[in-house]
């Protein structure tokens, strides 16, 4: 450190004073370009994006409500169809169970008995 400060200014390289004017111009151009980019972006922004820039909580609220409404509309649209399918399925299952119960209550006839009965009826 002491060695760097003992060297003459011309040997140290550019100082902040010699870089500063060029840096200020450069940063002014950068700021101007950024402002131009922001203006162009604002022109091409959609309505939803502009709402988000103004108040981010409103967009969250709107998207939450829209999701709820979409689900509600889908339920109201397809709900009756789903209920009918479930009711039909349950009725078929109950019918099958009833048949099984009826089969268990009554004794099945042997095949020989059935053949005997057929022969009696045919005569």
Automatic annotation (TrEMBL):
Residue stretches spanning the membrane: 57-78
Reading the lineage from the top rank, the first entry is: Eukaryota
Q: Which UniProt keywords apply?
A: Membrane, Transmembrane, Transmembrane helix, Viral envelope protein, Virion
PANTHER family hit by this protein? ENVELOPE GLYCOPROTEIN-RELATED (PTHR10424:SF82), VIRAL ENVELOPE PROTEIN (PTHR10424)
Report what the protein is called.
Envelope glycoprotein
Instruction: Give the gene that encodes this protein.
Output: env
